[in-house]
Amino acid sequence: MKIEYRIPIDFSREKKRVTVVGCGRWGSFLAWYADQLGHNVTVYGIAGDPTYENFVMTRKNEYVKFAPSIELTSDIVRAVKGAEIVVVSVPSQAFRSVMSELRAKTDMTGKYLVTCMKGIEISTGKRLSEIALEFGLEQWQIAVWAGPGHVQEFVQGNPNCMLIDGYERSTVERIIDIFKSPLIRFYYGTDVIGTEIGAAAKNVMGIVAGVLDGMNLVTLKGALMARGSREVARIIGKLGGNPLSAYGLCHLGDYETTLFSPHSHNRRWGENYVLGKKFDKLAEGVHTARALSIIADKYDVEMPITNAVNTMILDKVPPRAIMEKLFDRTLKDDFN
Fold first, then answer.
1. pLDDT for 247-291, tens place per residue?
2. In DSSP terms, which residues pair with 185 in a beta bridge?
3. Strand residues in 111-243 grouped as ranges (E)
4. CA distance 245 to 274
5. Helical (H) or strand (E) element with 226
6. Would you tell me how many other CB atoms lie within 10 Å of the CB of residue 173?
7. Taking the CA atoms of the chain, what radius of gyration do you get in angstroms?
8. Is it the case that residue 335 has pLDDT exceeding 60?
9. Closest Cα partner for 89 from 288, 282, 313?
């Protein structure tokens, strides 16, 4: 029998009206979590979408069960009206569409927007916060939620540390104050570029970890963790962020969890790819590998692991050949 974890109620917490856009694995957890904290929660989903319709009928999925206090709606105007915080958790390649709908149908004036997914737009190479700014949001409105953690662990009461970043410190502090709890301890981010790039790139490394699992080369994950962080640090620095962010919670801290977790979609995607099995759940690293490879070419940054994943997927090169070539590269100094 599954035990439902309950977060101790903090009666001193200021209660907010929180809207969650998206009801997939993370969206549903975030709605459950915000409700547990005592906030007034509305979940927006697309009418006809199987995930949303399942919640309408059963109010639960394989991870969480919604309390009666959580409102479900397929009306974006109703969902956002009155909300003080809009949390978005959708596939990263769909984020532009969400922002377009928010701008066309709602008034986001004075509201916080919190992005809770990890990806880079393939068509433009833009980070998610850049897309939000493109649609007229001010920097103070935007926060980025990143860092390690799996829904399956959180709902069992297993705590973890995560990260909130943003363009303005006051926003970071505000969002942390609203969402902190004994279940999730938040750290203060100070590098939006590094956080968004690092968080997205960890999914690419997760795919490689799965490939190594499928090939029974688990011990190579040590080299992957060390070298992967180094190449991500290079691209973060080139884009104007702090290279050290690659070694923090947004990237290294997150993908240490991803590389060894049975819950990681990206790791499982890579493992299934090697074994010739279909994996039908979202693995953001597939798209991120493509986006990062394009950015790396544009800025002339060496990213051999990312390019290897992209080549394996797009050119259908056998995983073993890709891994052999990757680990047979010309020897270099450790910090190059």
1. 998 877 767 666 677 778 888 888 898 888 887 877 788 899 999
2. 161
3. 112-115, 142-146, 160-166, 184-188
4. 31
5. helix 221-238
6. 14
7. 20
8. no
9. 282
Give the C-alpha distances (Å, rounded to integers) separating 188 from 10, 161, 199, 217.
21, 11, 15, 36
Type of residue at 325: K
Q: What is the pLDDT of residue 191?
A: 97
Q: Show the tokens assigned to 325.
A: 């070539």
Which DSSP state fits 5? P
Which residues are known catalytic residues?
A: 202
Q: Tell me how far apart the alpha carbons of residues 139 and 132 are, in angstroms, rounded to a whole number.
A: 9
State the pTM of this model.
0.92
Residue 237 neighbours by CB distance under 10 Å: 18
* Distance, CA of 273 to CA of 280 (rounded, Å): 11
Helix (H) or strand (E) holding 54: helix 50-58
> 26: Cβ–Cβ under 8 A, 6 or more apart, which residues?
89, 116, 117, 151
Question: What number of residues does the chain have?
Answer: 336
Q: How far apart are CA 51 and CA 23, in angstroms?
A: 7
Say which residue the tokens 């975030």 belong to: 30
Q: Is 306 in contact with 231 (CB distance < 8 Å)?
A: yes
Question: Per residue in 184-208, pLDDT tens?
Answer: 999 999 999 999 999 999 889 989 9
